Amino acid sequence: MEKNLLQLIEEMHYSCLSGKMLPDRVVRSAYVSDLLSDVMGKAQPGMVWITSQVHKNIVAVASLKELSAVIVVNERHVDPEVLEHAEAEEVVILTSGLPAFETAGRLYQKLNEME
Amino acid sequence: MKMHYDIEGGNFSAAGRASSEIKKTLKQFNIAPALVRRIAIALYEAEVNVVAHAWKGTMNVDLTPEGINVVVEDEGPGIEDIGKAMEEGFSTASDRVRQMGFGAGMGLPNIRKNCDEMYLSSTPGVGTRLEIKVYFGASSVCESCHRNFPAE
Known about the structure:
The complex is a heterodimer of chains A (about 120) and B (about 150). By secondary structure, chain A is of the alpha/beta class.
């Protein structure tokens, strides 16, 4: 099952911090990790990346791996400088307002509910 | 086509700039997306290694119709034991670097998985030289041609 970002943002009540102009991106799965090299090695294009990292390098990783979006967990604050960089690199950054466990669990359910 | 980038040690906010620019260039040349992604991963990891471990470094890219050859050289502490550094999970990164989510000990293994040839040499206390080759003709990853030469 896949969804596009707009569907996910509406159904999961995510806030969109950057990349609002890219709602058509498809989301097939997700990867949960705070280790950047782990994401570089294992995540696949079309995934969203669930993380608590908020520094500028998440943009490079998401862009290089062609991830559909980064979902920042909890109420972690993302600096305007990072968001600016994300806009320039066409990286979508969302926040879930929930811890990683709940964020991943709910998204897993949503992506699998039609199967 | 040749490209040159300077990499500043310790400057994480600029890390990934060289790899991103090279990726954009490769896309313009109509290279298969899967191949572009492999190259980008290898180059990003190499770039981050310089930022995380060295004082300064350079990335020199030679792009030809046959493939890409990248040499990353740095001035820094070097690598004491290359065999160990190639093991997944081994890292000498500082706590500060680990807090950012780097230093998982997967950088060099990720590079090896994503290139066709890899040559790594280092002099402790002086610096490290990494050479990566990816051939555009090779449609899939060739596990058997991954090589690692501890010393030159």
